[in-house]
Amino acid sequence: MNKIIGNEIAFKTFNFLRVNETEIEIPQIQGKLYREVGEDNPGEISEFENIKYGISNEVLDQNKKYLNYYKSYTSEEGKAEEDFKLFELDDEYSELFDLHHIVAEKDSKLKVVLDYTSCGKGEKFRNSVIKVLAKENSEVEVFVIARDDDKSLVLESIGVYTEAHAKVSVHQYELGAARLYTNYKCELIGEYSEGHVDSIYFGQKDEYLNMNYDMIHRGKKTESDILVNGALKDKSSKNFKSNLQFIEGAKGAVGSEEEYSILLDDTVHSISVPLMLAHEDDVVGNHASSAGKLDNDQIFYLMSRGISFDEAEALIVESKFSGAIDALGDEKLKDEVWEAVREIIKRGN
Predict the structure, then answer these.
(1) Could you tell me which residue ranges the SUF system FeS cluster assembly SufBD core domain spans (predicted)?
(2) Cβ-count burial of 336 within 10 angstroms (0-12 exposed, 13-18 middle, 19+ buried)?
């Protein structure tokens, strides 16, 4: 096992809290091929050359060294495009080092769905890097559906760069993996540009989730929101960090960060660190975080109408997840994600 440090917090706090950084154990990499051959990698997107993003430089270097799948997604100026890609890991194809370049040209719209699944008896390893460039007045939607199995180690690095009046929305559905490490960073460069996150997670068994979100306002009148809803059951644990940062010069910027976690068992462990840094006076920032058990009044209300405790529990969790799942649009995909959520909710799993 090789150990690396990643998901470092933007502003260090007390060491005893153990949130400043994360130690990640990386298994022995065999350098396997993936089941498909992707496109030839054209190299770095120029806008990302001087931007720090991702779980760590070591994780990005590892993705580059062992890259076994690359794909680009583009929308031409003034046009709308959609793309979908399914990735499947198993005992034969147990390693995935995938890189995605998502580029929306001026005045265009682009929707990309990346769906990850895995199965089999052996351990799997995935290191995914997703980079989004939204040019002037473009709109981008990215959906990352992660249904990796309980023998998977997953690293996800997402970087976003916005030009003037561009809008990027990222949705993550983290519904599996023995250990998951995800890092999202959005650089709101152009004035009036927007960055949005609406994501869910669900931990079960002894799964571990480590999530880090950075929303950086640089341009004037930029707008952002981070909304993450999650649930934990059994002996699962979660470490969530978010940073809403206003750089000097980002006058009139507005941002918010919210994370809500439902703790379904006494044996789960939840840590949340919402951070807001302001280097500009003329901004509006809000942040909130909460973690707790189900509301007894809600449970009583539902059970008084003939619904069992397990059914009431499921209804409350589903109500928190419905907004993000509805955003998928595609009915088949929504059904598949709901099926995955309901399978986790079931008691006795």
Answers:
(1) 94-318
(2) middle
